[in-house]
Amino acid sequence: QVQLVESGGGLVQAGGSLRLSCAASGRTFSSSAMGWFRQAAGKEREFVAAISSGGGSVYYADSVKGRFTISRDNAKNTVFLQMNSLKSEDTAVYYCAADPRNRYYYTGASGYAYWGQGTQVTVSS
């Protein structure tokens, strides 16, 4: 069983910043691709960013490229999402996900086997 716990969400004004963290259990973290997804009310879950197991490759949705940065600390079993220049359309529940098959290049939620419970990010305009 893999458990993922997100933290760092909250309320922020447009143009502000937040850093989300995702703490993972288990010893397979370092071999897993990690992704961030988000789901706004009434909408489907969408891809935000992903990082390969070793951190050497990253992938971003066009909507966040240049504003968000994904990173990981394998020694601490933690993945981060630094969010800058936040916009109201970034408002959503943000989920951390893990893919033990390291398919970081897949952007579909179905490619990830393990999910956290999510953390709410609300950006006020």
Looking at this protein, list some descriptive labels.
11 strands; mainly beta; four-stranded antiparallel beta sheet; single chain
Fold topology:
Blueprint: E1 4-7, E2 10-13, E3 18-24, E4 33-39, E5 46-51, E6 58-60, E7 68-73, E8 78-83, E9 92-99, E10 114-115, E11 119-124
Parallel strand pairs: 2-11
Antiparallel strand pairs: 1-3, 3-8, 4-5, 4-9, 5-6, 7-8, 9-10, 9-11
Commentary on this structure:
The protein has 125 residues and is an all-beta fold. Helix content is 0%, strand content 47%. The protein contains no helices and 11 strands. The chain has strands spanning 4-7, 10-13, 18-24, 33-39, 46-51, 58-60, 68-73, 78-83, 92-99, 114-115, 119-124. The strands form 2 sheets. Strands 2, 4, 5, 6, 9, 10 and 11 form a 7-stranded mixed sheet that branches. Strand 7 (68-73) and strand 8 form a beta hairpin. The protein is globular and about 40 Å long. The relative contact order is 0.32.
Low-confidence stretches: none
Percentage of β-strand residues: over 45%
Order of helices and strands: EEEEEEEEEEE
Q: Roughly how many Å apart are the termini?
A: 39 Å
Shape: globular
- Annotation field: number of helices: 0
Main beta-sheet strand count, sense and barrel state: 7 strands, mixed
| Total E-strand runs | 11
Give the mean pLDDT. Answer: 95
Helix content: under 10%
Cα-atom radius of gyration:
13 Å
Structural class, judged by helices and strands? Answer: mainly beta
